[in-house]
Amino acid sequence: MNKYKNKFHWNEETLNYFKELKNKNEEEFYRKINEFVKYECDLEENEYIEDLQTDLIIQVINKK
Q1: 45 to each of 12, 48, 49, 64, how far by Cα in Å?
Q2: pLDDT (tens digit, 9 = 90+) per residue, 17-58?
Q3: I need a labelling partner for 32 at 20 to 30 A (CA). Which of 19, 23, 38, 46 fits?
Q4: Domain boundaries, the chain
Q5: Is 8 helix (H, G, I), strand (E, B) or coil?
Q6: What would you report as the CA-atom Rg of the chain, rounded to the nearest whole angstrom?
Q7: What is the Cα–Cα distance from 43 to 40, expressed in whole angstroms?
């Protein structure tokens, strides 16, 4: 059972893209997530890049 509660909403295309990338090249997966969150996401008050990265990674890993 997954006890992690998603903190952020990611669109399905984003999750699918990173899921496929993770299956192909895990090192590239982490690098691309870092770049994506850093350059494509807007942080709101009391949010940190690391929070978004962690959430996205967990959601991709848990995606069926």
Answers
A1: 24, 9, 12, 31
A2: 999 999 999 999 999 999 999 999 999 999 999 999 999 999
A3: 46
A4: 12-62
A5: coil
A6: 11
A7: 10
The SS3 of residue 58 is helix
Between the CA of residue 57 and those of 51, 52, 62, what are the distances in Å? 10, 8, 9
CA pseudo-torsion sign 64, 5, 8, 52: negative
Q: What is the DSSP string of 24-57?
A: H-HHHHHHHHHHHHHHH----TT--HHHHHHHHH
Residue matched to tokens 């893209």: 17
Q: What is the pTM of this model?
A: 0.88
